[in-house]
Design a protein that fits this description.
Elements lengths: L1 H21 L1 E2 L5 E2 L5 E2 L5 E3 L16 E9 L12 E2 L3 E4 L4 E8 L4 E7 L10 E7 L2 E8 L5 E6 L11 E6 L25 H65 L5 H37 L4
Parallel strand pairs: 1-11, 5-8, 7-13
Antiparallel strand pairs: 2-3, 3-4, 4-10, 5-6, 8-11, 9-10, 9-12, 12-13
């Protein structure tokens, strides 16, 4: 009996050690490609890592935190209708926290822990991104911005978020809750398990009609935009053509008059004559303006009542 118990205990310990060894730490194999982008050859990646640059509005790091997030199918079992999930659906940290995430993927598929809405001047595309092909572990660090805001955290692999791998991270008091966070907020579109084939096909048909109507509207808007652009171009061409014709006509007239007027003059004489003509034109315009001003003041004085 003791012999069998000993064999069983040894087997259990050996099996546990094998399971533990299945979770490889890909963080140790990451290669730094610059700008907070780290990659390794077996499917691990960190994007947007920031360990020392303070976001605007943070005078210093408020606190340093480290959390471990597990991802896998088994964490979705408590959420009916879901396939994947994180072990934690809501996080909360102080503004300007230096946060390290240890992301553990327990499935034999690829999972991500992505955070959106970060300052783009500090985080490329406003995103902090951990990714690993599991079962494996990867870690990354970022510094949270100041202010109260709620950030989306999810897996961006096709359909993983829709199947439950979604959470929210609140900095400070946050600025509200996000929809469809499993176990935290109500779904934006509740699942309907009572719908039969007829309802499903009707919903699919309606979706097709909505898409077709949207495509027609987009096509019409694009056609209207192109027509307007063409009309504007035609108007501009017409204006330029008319202006060009008038300019050419005036130029020909001036050239003809100038040719007769400057005939036999030297360059200096032609220049002096041109300035005399220009001065006469300016004097004429000034005299006209003075007359108009005089007429305006004269009419105002006449309209004033006599004392």
């Amino acid at each position: 009996m003791i012999k069998f118990l000993s064999v069983g205990l040894i087997t259990a310990i050996f099996s546990a050690s094998l399971i533990a060894e299945e979770i490889e730490d890909h963080t140790k194999m990451l290669m730094d490609h610059g700008d907070g982008h780290l990659m390794e050859m077996t499917g691990g990646m960190v994007m947007g890592q920031n360990t020392d640059k303070l976001p605007g509005g943070c005078d210093s790091i408020s606190e340093t935190k480290e959390v471990t997030v597990h991802a896998g199918h088994k964490y979705a079992e408590k959420f009916p209708g879901r396939m994947y999930a994180f072990d934690t659906q809501e996080f909360n940290f102080k503004p300007c926290t230096k946060l390290t995430i240890n992301f553990v993927n327990e499935d034999h598929v690829r999972h991500q822990w992505m955070m959106h809405g970060l300052p783009k001047y500090l985080y490329p595309k406003g995103m902090f991104h951990l990714e690993v092909s599991g079962p494996a572990k990867i870690s990354g660090t970022l510094i949270l911005p100041p202010g109260d805001k709620t950030y989306l955290v999810h897996c961006d692999i096709a359909q993983h978020m829709e199947k439950g791998m979604k959470a929210q991270l609140k900095v400070g008091d946050g600025d509200g809750d996000l929809p469809s966070i499993p176990g935290v907020t109500a779904p934006a579109v509740p699942d309907d398990y009572k719908a039969g084939p007829a309802e499903v096909f009707a919903a699919a048909k309606q979706t097709e009609l909505d898409i077709a109507a949207a495509n027609i509207a987009l096509a019409k808007a694009d056609a209207d935009r192109k027509a307007k652009k063409k009309a504007d171009a035609a108007t501009a061409d017409s204006f330029v053509s008319g202006t060009t014709v008038i300019g050419l006509a005036i130029g020909l007239i001036v050239s003809a008059v100038a040719g007769r007027r400057f005939k036999g003059m030297s360059a200096a004489e032609a220049t002096a004559y041109s300035f005399d003509v220009l001065r006469s034109i300016v004097d004429f315009i000034i005299s006209i303006v003075n007359k108009l001003i005089g007429m305006v003041f004269s009419s105002k004085n006449k309209s004033l009542p006599s004392k």
